[in-house]
Amino acid sequence: MAKTRIGIGPEPDRAERIRQHAEWAGKDGPAYLAHAATGQMAGVEAMEEQFAEVDAVIAQAERAADSLPAGLVPEPAAELTEQERREVKEALCLVQGRNRHGSRPEHAT
User: Fold this and answer.
1) How many whole angstroms separate alpha carbon 28 and alpha carbon 25?
2) DSSP states of 32-82 as a string?
3) Nearest to 90 by CA among 69, 76, 108
4) Which residues lie below 8 Å from residue 39, measured CB to CB, with a gap of 6+?
5) Residues 6 or more apart whose Cβ sits within 8 Å of residue 10
6) pLDDT for residue 75
7) This prediction's pTM
8) Rounded to the nearest 5 degrees, what angle is found at the Cα of 68, between the Cα atoms of 66 and 74?
9) Residue ranges of the chain with pLDDT lower than 50?
10) What is the pLDDT of residues 53-62, one digit of tens each?
11) Are 68 and 96 contacting, i.e. CB atoms less than 8 angstroms apart?
Protein backbone atom coordinates (compact mmCIF):
# COMPACT_ATOMS: atom_id res chain seq x y z
CA MET A 1 0.00 0.00 0.00
CA ALA A 2 1.33 3.45 -0.90
CA LYS A 3 1.99 5.81 1.97
CA THR A 4 1.24 9.50 2.10
CA ARG A 5 3.29 11.92 4.13
CA ILE A 6 1.45 14.37 6.37
CA GLY A 7 3.58 17.14 7.80
CA ILE A 8 3.04 18.62 11.24
CA GLY A 9 5.02 21.26 13.04
CA PRO A 10 4.47 21.15 16.77
CA GLU A 11 6.15 23.60 19.10
CA PRO A 12 9.54 22.31 20.31
CA ASP A 13 8.36 21.38 23.81
CA ARG A 14 5.36 19.51 22.44
CA ALA A 15 7.53 17.77 19.83
CA GLU A 16 9.85 16.59 22.60
CA ARG A 17 6.94 15.23 24.62
CA ILE A 18 5.67 13.37 21.54
CA ARG A 19 9.14 11.96 20.96
CA GLN A 20 9.36 10.79 24.59
CA HIS A 21 5.94 9.15 24.47
CA ALA A 22 6.75 7.49 21.16
CA GLU A 23 10.00 6.15 22.59
CA TRP A 24 8.20 4.85 25.68
CA ALA A 25 5.67 3.10 23.38
CA GLY A 26 8.50 1.58 21.33
CA LYS A 27 7.57 3.47 18.15
CA ASP A 28 9.16 6.15 16.06
CA GLY A 29 7.45 9.57 16.04
CA PRO A 30 5.46 9.20 12.82
CA ALA A 31 4.24 5.69 13.71
CA TYR A 32 3.24 6.87 17.18
CA LEU A 33 1.30 9.85 15.78
CA ALA A 34 -0.39 7.69 13.13
CA HIS A 35 -1.40 5.18 15.81
CA ALA A 36 -2.74 7.96 18.06
CA ALA A 37 -4.68 9.58 15.21
CA THR A 38 -6.13 6.24 14.13
CA GLY A 39 -7.28 5.56 17.68
CA GLN A 40 -8.87 9.00 17.91
CA MET A 41 -10.67 8.52 14.60
CA ALA A 42 -11.96 5.09 15.66
CA GLY A 43 -13.35 6.61 18.87
CA VAL A 44 -15.12 9.42 17.03
CA GLU A 45 -16.55 7.02 14.45
CA ALA A 46 -17.81 4.71 17.21
CA MET A 47 -19.53 7.64 18.94
CA GLU A 48 -21.08 8.79 15.67
CA GLU A 49 -22.41 5.30 15.07
CA GLN A 50 -23.67 4.99 18.65
CA PHE A 51 -25.58 8.28 18.45
CA ALA A 52 -26.66 8.19 14.77
CA GLU A 53 -30.31 7.48 15.65
CA VAL A 54 -30.39 10.23 18.27
CA ASP A 55 -28.75 12.67 15.85
CA ALA A 56 -31.38 11.81 13.22
CA VAL A 57 -34.21 12.46 15.71
CA ILE A 58 -32.63 15.78 16.71
CA ALA A 59 -32.22 16.80 13.06
CA GLN A 60 -35.86 15.93 12.38
CA ALA A 61 -36.99 17.94 15.41
CA GLU A 62 -34.87 20.92 14.33
CA ARG A 63 -36.40 20.80 10.83
CA ALA A 64 -39.87 20.69 12.40
CA ALA A 65 -39.01 23.59 14.73
CA ASP A 66 -37.78 25.65 11.77
CA SER A 67 -41.21 25.32 10.18
CA LEU A 68 -43.00 26.70 13.25
CA PRO A 69 -44.03 30.35 13.24
CA ALA A 70 -41.68 32.64 15.16
CA GLY A 71 -42.76 33.28 18.73
CA LEU A 72 -44.91 30.18 18.94
CA VAL A 73 -44.62 29.47 22.65
CA PRO A 74 -47.74 28.01 24.26
CA GLU A 75 -48.93 29.61 27.45
CA PRO A 76 -48.23 27.49 30.54
CA ALA A 77 -51.09 26.27 32.70
CA ALA A 78 -52.75 28.90 34.91
CA GLU A 79 -51.92 27.03 38.13
CA LEU A 80 -48.17 27.61 37.73
CA THR A 81 -46.39 30.28 39.73
CA GLU A 82 -44.80 33.17 37.85
CA GLN A 83 -41.35 31.66 38.44
CA GLU A 84 -42.53 28.30 37.09
CA ARG A 85 -43.99 30.05 34.05
CA ARG A 86 -40.64 31.71 33.35
CA GLU A 87 -38.84 28.37 33.72
CA VAL A 88 -41.26 26.64 31.34
CA LYS A 89 -40.89 29.45 28.80
CA GLU A 90 -37.08 29.27 29.01
CA ALA A 91 -37.17 25.49 28.62
CA LEU A 92 -39.41 25.74 25.55
CA CYS A 93 -37.09 28.34 24.06
CA LEU A 94 -34.16 25.99 24.58
CA VAL A 95 -36.05 23.15 22.91
CA GLN A 96 -36.93 25.40 19.99
CA GLY A 97 -33.37 26.73 19.78
CA ARG A 98 -34.31 30.26 20.73
CA ASN A 99 -32.73 32.63 23.23
CA ARG A 100 -34.60 34.45 25.99
CA HIS A 101 -35.66 37.13 23.49
CA GLY A 102 -37.25 34.56 21.17
CA SER A 103 -34.71 34.74 18.33
CA ARG A 104 -32.66 31.87 16.98
CA PRO A 105 -28.88 32.48 17.11
CA GLU A 106 -28.44 32.12 13.33
CA HIS A 107 -31.23 34.64 12.76
CA ALA A 108 -29.87 37.31 15.08
CA THR A 109 -29.99 40.87 13.77
Assistant:
1) 9
2) HHHHHHHHHHHHHHHHHHHTHHHHHHHHHHHHHHHTSPTT--PPPPTTS-H
3) 76
4) none
5) 18
6) 63
7) 0.49
8) 130
9) 107-109
10) 999 998 998 8
11) yes
